[in-house]
Amino acid sequence: MRTYAGHFIDGTWTQPRNADVIEVVNPADERVIGSIPAGTPEDVDRAVRAAARAFEEWSRATPEVRADYLRRIHQALEERAEDIARLVASEVGTPVQESRVLQSGLPVFTFGHAAELATGFDFGPEEIGNSHVVREPVGVVGCITPWNFPLHQVSLKVALALAAGCTVVLKPSEVAPLSAMLLAEIAESVGLPAGVFNVVTGYGPVVGEALVAHPDVAMVSFTGSTRAGRRVAALAAETVKKVALELGGKSPNIILDDADLEAAVTDGVAKCYLNSGQTCIALTRMLVPRDRLGEAGRIAARVARGYRVGDPQDEETQIGPMVSDVQLKRVRDYIAAGIAEGATLLTGGPDAPHEGPGYFVAPTVFSDVTNDMTIAREEIFGPVLSILPYDSEEEAVAIANDTPYGLAGAVWSGDPERARAVARRIRAGMVDVNGGAFNPLAPFGGYKQSGVGREAGRLGFEEFLETKAIQH
Predict the structure, then answer these.
(1) Regarding beta strands 252-255 and 140-144, do their DSSP bridges make them parallel or antiparallel, or are they unpaired?
(2) What is the pLDDT of residues 376-426, one digit of tens each?
(3) What is the CA angle 369-374-377, rounded to 5?
(4) Which of 283, 380, 413, 448 could lock 271 by a disulfide, CB 3.0 to 4.6 Å apart?
(5) Per-residue confidence (pLDDT) for residue 19, from 0 to 100
(6) Contact assessment for residue 451 and residue 460, using Cβ atoms and an 8 Å cutoff
(7) What is the percent of the chain where pLDDT is above 70?
(8) Secondary structure percentages of the chain, helix, strand, coil, to 5
């Protein structure tokens, strides 16, 4: 049981303004595993004022000084990697064998790479005519993060913002906040200067909106649903803040007629079901040639039935629970909508895969899906794959792009050059070709309603900088 009685503000654990708490539930057994304060706008104000005070000195610190603190955090995260993997498996339901790589391994990598970016980036000046052009930290950054990759998403924002010379106020998801609080403990243990990193927990409409609206916050970096992202953008516009938004997705996976169907479908199922389907870049729309629809469906159903659903702490588990009872109902409602609208259910469905507690959904595959169906239009965030037929390469690209989202995609072909040419036509921020692996150094973000700006690597680091021209 991890109980946090205060927020992390100005380098200390600070008593909240009220006594309300939010319980954290293990989605695998529905037991309470922790609690956090339900913050208030007053808590946010204290945190932002602390970050604003700390900004002057932190922004003027040398890149080497900032990098040294980031390396200390990197080392501490590395030392606690197994604890973090187990913790996130408990608060999110990520199978532990995935959690080691995604939920603890990526944050360890990100803080180490952020230290390299701090010391390796050329802040200027660059001479352009009679101007010195320099890059400077944007200021106090408000970071609002989701529950599906809680520490990874925190790290992408916090590590790079600190490396750039910004100070941070973080509002983690109230559904899975415990790994963020562990990061605050680490920041305290390595002696990070007071006010440089602050954490205020609570609900989005209260704490999140107060953070976005605060006049001393220079930038907001938000990851979450497109609906919530619109609200963040609207609030930030009132004080003309810089905004980075990483939002929803409904990513297409085009399997061309010359592809190795067994390999392509197997990989596609895996990339749909990653983190139990609770992934914004999940390849949830599989597009296959119409004359191979039946074969693709048989492969997908066979692969899906082979996935082991169960306790995320079990090393053999491949699909854990949905993160909450709310998410469980949402996914089941989408499955019911798919059936009602005429899609063919090949395996899975709305019924629980086994008796007992926990928010579990059976791995589900639909075929004969058309792109106007609800399950093809809306982000489900669960282990639900939709297989759509197409009659030509042109139609496949048109279906892939017929979505308000543009976060990710994939293309499979026996001809790599053909696959890359089709990938260039997909309106999305990242596209895998023939099973290409995730690259944590690549810019992460989307087109259209999937967001604004990029995270990770050098381009993610540059989001936290402003550009100044000094004429002479």
Answers:
(1) unpaired
(2) 999 999 999 999 999 999 999 999 999 999 999 999 999 999 999 999 999
(3) 85
(4) 283
(5) 85
(6) no
(7) 100
(8) 45, 20, 35
Give the residues across from 310 on adjacent strands: none
Going by DSSP bridges, is the β-strand pair 451-452/344-349 parallel, antiparallel, or unpaired? Answer: unpaired
Q: Strand pairing of 465-471 and 344-349?
A: unpaired
Q: What is the pLDDT of residue 422?
A: 98
Tell me the average pLDDT of the chain.
Answer: 97
Residue 246 known to be catalytic? yes
Task: Output DSSP code: residue 309.
Answer: B
pLDDT in tens, 241-269: 999 999 999 999 999 999 999 999 999 99
Q: Nearest Cα to 224, choosing from 284, 162, 175, 166?
A: 175
Q: Which residues contact 184 (CB under 8 A, 6 or more apart)?
A: 8, 197, 199
Spatial contact of 232 and 247, defined as CB atoms under 8 Å apart: no
Token pair 């080392």 in the structure block, residue: 75
State the pLDDT confidence band at 270, using cuts at 50, 70 and 90. very high
Average pLDDT, stretch 175-196? 97
The full DSSP string for 409-427 is: EEEE-SSHHHHHHHHHHS-
pLDDT of residue 80: 97
Element (H, E) at 115: helix 106-120
């589900």: which residue's tokens? Answer: 364
Q: Look up residue 128 and give its two tokens.
A: 């352009």
pLDDT of residue 158: 98
* Block residue for tokens 């306790």: 311
Residue whose C-alpha is closest to residue 41's, from 186, 235, 227: 235
Longest dimension (CA), the chain: 74
Is pLDDT of 353 > 90? no
Contacts of 39 (CB under 8 A, 6+ apart): 7, 16, 17, 171, 200, 201, 202, 206, 207
Q: 106-120 vs 150-164: helix axis angle to the nearest 10?
A: 10
Rounded-to-integer distance, Cα 15 and Cα 37, Å: 9
Strand, coil or helix: 276: helix
Tell whether the model's pLDDT for residue 111 goes beyond 90. Answer: yes
- Measure the CA–CA gap between 46 and 216, rounded to whole angstroms: 11
Q: Catalytic: which of 246, 379, 455, 463?
A: 246
| Cα 450 from Cα 279, distance rounded (Å) | 13
